[in-house]
Amino acid sequence: MIVDWTTSGNRRVVYSIQYWIINFAIMIGSGLSGWFFRDYLVWLLLAITIEEIVSCLVVIFWIDESFNPDTQQHKQESNIIKAYFTVAKDRIFMYYLFASVFIAMIFNQIDYYLPVHLSDSFRTARIFGIEVYGQRMLTIFLMVNTLVIVLFMGRVNKLTKNWSRSSGISIGIILQGLGFMIAFLGRDLTWELIAALVATIGEMILVPFSQALRADLMDGDQVGTYTGAFSVTQPIASVLSGILVSLSSLYGNIGMTIFMFFIIVLGVLPSLRAIRMHESHS
Fold it and tell me: What InterPro entries does this protein's entry cite (predicted)?
């Protein structure tokens, strides 16, 4: 629906707002659930149920439908296999699809190798007398990520509003990947906090540009098919990330950092190729 209701000119701003809302909701939801889960679980579940009902009513009564079956039916490919072959013939989108696998691998590290690294290599520290060990450092990493996005997403969006797609996507990927490289090499609190900040800044730059580019690359008459094709990137990235974690005992933190460098390169170069081809065809 975002693709249907936005234009190429305002799409990046809309995706920035959406991303900010998601992270704000995560921050509020995590805080409330952590505070009330043990003693008020029933009331917490009741509140969630009411929230879901309200959300459903908002969708039904206040959001206009963007899909018109009368005008779209004749454009819809009846054979889903042929539809996906059509997507596969779109070289520009396939370049970006390939890059997106490696971009997703960078995002995945917070759930894959980073917890392993912090559990095995992080040096226990203390903050205001509270012991911070590997698992707690991962929680702090996530909290820094969410808090920085909530507080500074608007500011970053203003600073990058005149950037080209090439600059936004390449700088975003490089900074986010660099943040995880620092995290993999770091062993103490200071370096992990620096890593969290660098990775989050890259994420704030990357996400609006990449989502807007993905929408622009889709054929407007086959958005569902293109979205379905794009959905395979996350499972592939998860499998590859899992393999790297499984083999990490062979090459350790330094080896994983080297792999991350190549992942960054494979995320940046095909993305830039897709952008140049799209702009030359526009």
Answer: MFS, MFS_trans_sf, MFS_Transporters
